[in-house]
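Human: Not sure, check this?
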Amino acid sequence: MSNVSNEIRERLSLEQVVEHIRWSDGLVPAIVQDAETRQVLMMAYMNRESLKLSLESGETWFWSRSRQELWHKGATSGNVQTITSLKYDCDGDTLLVEVKPNGPACHTGEVTCFHNEIVGLPQKSVEHDGKEANANSAGSQAEGRFDVLAELESVIAERERERPEGAYTTYLFDKGVDKILKKIGEEASETIIAAKNKDNDELRLEVSDLMYHLLVLLQERKLPLDDIMAELSRRHERPRRD
């Protein structure tokens, strides 16, 4: 039985996709993204057969250029990826596969294959007025620091409305507030353990999980994130000086 959502089955068929794809030596790159966190997990290649298997099974299949064979993501590790959305770009030469991952995407055990950060990139800024340029740059960075929270809040609200089959957020909303609260308790405990272990890599992951589940709770209770931010702002208002 296919796990692909009704939306995918209705909007896409193998014939329709193949018609619009610009295949290069029979292959097309496929970018895999976490449907909940929006994090890019990996990039691999699909051919017509792996695309067909992906659509039929609802899980990601790819073509290995090194082994020259099909491979089912997670068949050995158990870290399968359940497809929630499948799209192609405007040029038809790249696929975007949104998934619900059942574990790390990278064979190293990292959540994403893109975990090697390039450091030392030049910082560009406007030079017309040193202080003003630095202030504007800092202000711009501050304004965009938490954009991901607003985006995630929007995605969670969409999941509650549309309830896509197979999505973890759908599962939480279907189970109700008690399940959401249980997950918050679990993630809070794991956050404490990571902090006590002085493991910042693990702490980063656990805090991210905790914040995600808190956003789900706010959506379930219809309490906007803006209200939380406004409350924090009120608490930290500095007294005005005459």
